[in-house]
């Protein structure tokens, strides 16, 4: 299916009336009477209203399309601001129209933080954090600012933008360390409404009870629709002072008569034979709805799509898996740049840049392909396309960022003794690293004996000052669709198709958790994030950056203290810890 034209054509009829007169004495030629042509009235094209994620600047790019913002009215959290206040990864809503030069010009641009507060717990194995009792997932395409997936920690306050999921959890496209203390008196959550009770003035989002009895309500509350909530947690209940239930149209204060169509990008939150919900906004299908990338009957909750909506009817649906999942991730130094063909070479692998590639740099908003240079440090998330892998996201880093701990993802293309090649990078497997197969810890020997070329792995470690990779952990998953990343992930979890398969929720397999201690049980056990945790006699225990024994470690434990643990579920009952660090 060809994508719907974004041009608007005005057709005018030109009528020429010709009258033929008879002969006259002067034998003048037949006269031609032409009615005067009235120039068509110049009518401004109608607006196209879009909700999507910023992919670049100059002026602003969304879904690979440039929108001029020279005359835009830009708002952030309800306040007028400048373009510089926005960032790649933010989900925005905006109206735009084309000028006489076919350039898209944005009029109103609005961004609102959706989840914000102090991180309560982190499940690194399943790439999720909890804020205001709301579960937030992150993935390879999540843009981190002033922090990273390895640096985020319990007690840190962050702000988040992204996409609500049907189960009330949230998929983050953008996570930023919150440095604005003016709004620290409240917490913010967002998601799909369920269990709306107008008698008790309560509803839930993913099990989080929202008490809106004292709140100002913008818009109309209803089950299965998307809302943003500002308030405070009191005994596990979010007591709201404001609930924003406005649609995109209402948030931009747009008259329907001025809108040509809506373009809504996000996750399917509900689907039926007659309607579809995207980001909690529900639309009926038009009779002749077109679909690209999937069949209408194949649409399921959790798919990432873009829908075109006219008169509240969906006329077009495009499946966009690559917008929220990747096939791999790699770091390296740019070795070569082909400006003409828009390719870069990292670790001897050539990657192609296209109009959908996202460019991210904390310090340089207008970072683009033109500003890349040989010897730049970069991190790349890619899609395995033919003939060359395509860059989904490229992030430029300084040397300090480059040497931080991170996770590489990709396919093993060579094995030589204890050296494997992943994404062109050679990784030395050492005996003191952690090795995991199908979410179970195994020995170095077992891992090496089972690993084969073609396996997809996740490799955790960091580069040293000599650009040598220091290995910490390697994970291989074969039970989860052969470890493939490209199935779009678990639609209900909204992950990026990583090899880990959510075993923490099933109480089996390897665990990596961070949170606060809620109860001390025995001289070697306690409660963490609602789970019982037991320390093994030979566990590696760290206190104030030094190794300690079990007795010393337990003496330092207290309710409310932050701790990070790694271990294994035992008999679906408790976590047996092999490593723990008291923060």
Automatic annotation (TrEMBL):
Compositional bias of kind Acidic residues: 482-502
Keywords: Signal
InterPro entries membership: DUF5666
PROSITE patterns: PROKAR_LIPOPROTEIN
Residue intervals passing through the bilayer: none
Domain DUF5666: 116-176, 191-243, 265-310, 331-382, 409-467, 514-572
Ranges for region Disordered: 480-507
Signal peptide: 1-21
Coiled-coil regions listed in the entry: none
Alphabetized Pfam families for the sequence: DUF5666
Origin: domain of life: Bacteria
Protein name: DUF5666 domain-containing protein
Origin species: Pseudoalteromonas neustonica
């Amino acid at each position: 299916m060809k994508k719907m034209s974004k041009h608007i054509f005005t057709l005018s009829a030109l009528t020429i009336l010709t009258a033929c007169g008879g002969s006259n004495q002067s034998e003048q030629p037949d006269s031609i009477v032409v009615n005067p042509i009235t120039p068509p009235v110049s009518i401004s094209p109608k607006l196209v209203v879009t909700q999507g994620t910023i992919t670049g600047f100059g002026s602003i790019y969304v879904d690979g399309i440039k929108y001029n913002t020279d005359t835009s009215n830009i708002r952030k959290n309800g306040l007028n601001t400048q373009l510089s206040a926005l960032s790649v990864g933010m989900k925005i809503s905006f109206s735009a129209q084309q000028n006489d030069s076919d350039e898209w010009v944005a009029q109103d641009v609005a961004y609102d933080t959706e989840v914000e507060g102090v991180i309560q717990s982190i499940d690194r194995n399943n790439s999720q954090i909890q804020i205001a009792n709301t579960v937030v997932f992150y993935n390879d395409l999540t843009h981190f600012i002033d922090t990273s997936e390895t640096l985020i920690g319990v007690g840190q306050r962050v702000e988040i933008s992204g996409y609500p999921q049907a189960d009330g959890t949230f998929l983050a496209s953008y996570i930023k360390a919150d440095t604005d203390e003016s709004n620290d008196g409240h917490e913010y959550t967002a998601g799909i409404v369920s269990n709306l009770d107008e008698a008790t003035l309560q509803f839930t989002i993913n099990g989080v009870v929202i008490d809106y009895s004292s709140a100002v309500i913008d818009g109309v509350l209803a089950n299965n629709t998307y809302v943003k909530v500002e308030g405070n947690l009191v005994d596990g209940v979010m007591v709201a002072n404001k609930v924003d239930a406005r649609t995109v149209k209402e948030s931009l204060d747009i008259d329907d008569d001025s809108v040509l169509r809506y373009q809504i990008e996000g996750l399917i939150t509900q689907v039926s034979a007659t309607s579809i919900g995207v980001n909690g906004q529900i639309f009926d299908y038009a009779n002749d709805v077109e679909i690209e990338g999937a069949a209408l009957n194949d649409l399921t909750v959790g798919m990432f799509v873009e829908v075109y909506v006219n008169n509240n009817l969906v006329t077009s649906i495009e499946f966009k898996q690559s917008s929220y999942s990747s096939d791999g991730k790699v770091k390296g130094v740019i070795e070569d740049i082909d400006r003409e063909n828009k390719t870069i070479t990292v670790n001897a692998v050539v990657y192609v840049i296209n109009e959908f590639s996202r460019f991210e740099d904390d310090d340089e908003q207008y970072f683009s392909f033109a500003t890349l240079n040989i010897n730049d440090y970069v991190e790349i998330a890619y899609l395995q396309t033919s003939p060359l892998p395509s860059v989904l996201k490229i992030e430029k880093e300084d040397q300090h960022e480059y040497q931080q701990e991170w996770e590489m993802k990709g396919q093993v293309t060579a094995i030589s003794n204890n050296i494997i090649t992943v994404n062109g990078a050679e990784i030395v497997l050492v005996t003191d690293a952690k090795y995991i197969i199908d979410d179970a810890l195994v020995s170095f020997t077992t891992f090496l004996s089972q690993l084969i070329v073609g396996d997809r792995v996740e490799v955790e470690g960091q580069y040293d000052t000599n650009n040598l990779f220091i290995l910490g952990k390697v994970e291989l998953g074969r039970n989860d669709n052969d470890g493939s990343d490209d199935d779009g992930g678990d639609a209900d979890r909204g992950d990026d198709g990583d090899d880990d398969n959510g075993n923490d929720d099933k109480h089996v397999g390897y665990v990596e958790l961070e949170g606060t201690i809620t109860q001390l049980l025995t001289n070697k056990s306690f409660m963490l994030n609602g789970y019982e945790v037991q320390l093994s006699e030979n566990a590696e225990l760290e206190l104030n950056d030094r190794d300690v024994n079990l007795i010393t470690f337990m003496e330092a434990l207290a309710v409310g203290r932050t701790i990070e643990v790694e271990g294994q579920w035992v008999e679906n009952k408790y976590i047996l810890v092999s490593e723990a660090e008291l923060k």
